[in-house]
């Protein structure tokens, strides 16, 4: 091209690249808003948390092994890893538009024409063409649309990684809960069998007294009904135990009926750990981090939708080698360079509607983020309240059990002395046995509330999780580092209303 046109072309490119560096639709950052959370949990320690793999504090090696197996083989965790791989590939695809494309081509064309002589000539002619070429194309990101789409994809990928962490935290808590519930059913079953033996002894005693005319037939019938009642309580407990074992098998990624666990005593419950500050949840809960990343992703989607309403700038070039003979391919060449601009004139409101849609998505994500934060805070508060009052409840129930045992002893003594009939003894006996069963469940509930607290507090132990199906460690690290360097350096806890003008 003439030198003047060439210079103008270069100057135009410089101007366009200068504009592209501005990214006029970059979303505002979200900083420094605590979402209205209180400064501390009511009546509870604000000491820093150090939870780590909290289930190890329960002191059962088999349980530790079960949790580690579930973190690898649970279906929900594996599905979350698969979704992560999908989002990683999508993020790479979105980011690929930031770079030029280069395509290679090779071709051969052979033609042969001829005449039968009716028009004065006769014969045939062959023509061969060989071609090797390269074609490059690049869309100049003047308005930041490509960058916005890429960062939205990167943030979606990071949010998916937090979804893996959320699934892992959930499955760890579920495995521990099922294990505790299985132990509860076994403790109940052991107590019921002991009660059954005790009731049989009472029955033998009453039958002996009946034969000696010291008890009535009604006394015998009442005690026989008590024996039958306890026997009837055992099958549902055994059934519940089997169902819980099947649920545990599913959490481990195994078929139902292939898992069994050893019977163990309840773990000794340590004092309530330091729970830190409510604001710590924003960093420690993966579901909150995921919601924050999804919010940031939607911000970038708005930027991309706004930029899409403006013209696109494209440059392309091609170079080719052509020759009749392949041996002389370098004897002929062709170079071309082109630039184009294209923008919407009338689209029936399509792009404007997309901007409105993405802005509504931002509003939805912001509300979802706030809901997630408040839900997390409520879960911690609920677990703390439940555990504190459950301890008081258990203490009161144990006092009630001691009083019931005293009542049973007195009723039995008066019955043996002939001062009372058997009904007060039976009433006291049933009360004691019901309390024994109920306290086992109450103690299990206390442990389950602690599991809920650990689950609600979150933690960073999931950050070290890896999947056998993931990229090698060095390659995965490079991918994560690249994405983290592309997105804003601010944390997802830096939230404030965003401008979407």
UniProtKB/TrEMBL annotation:
Its main location: membrane. The keyword Lipoprotein applies. It is found in: Cell membrane. Residues 108-128, 466-501 are annotated as: Disordered. It is a lipid-anchor. Keywords: Lipoprotein, Membrane, Palmitate, Transmembrane, Transmembrane beta strand. Residues 108-127, 480-491 have a biased composition (Polar residues). InterPro entries: MdtP/NodT-like, OMP_efflux. GO terms for cellular component: plasma membrane. The keyword Nuclease does not apply. One of its GO terms (molecular function) is efflux transmembrane transporter activity. It holds the Pfam family OEP. Belongs to the outer membrane factor (OMF) (TC 1.B.17) family. This is Efflux transporter, outer membrane factor (OMF) lipoprotein, NodT family. It comes from Desulfovibrio gilichinskyi.
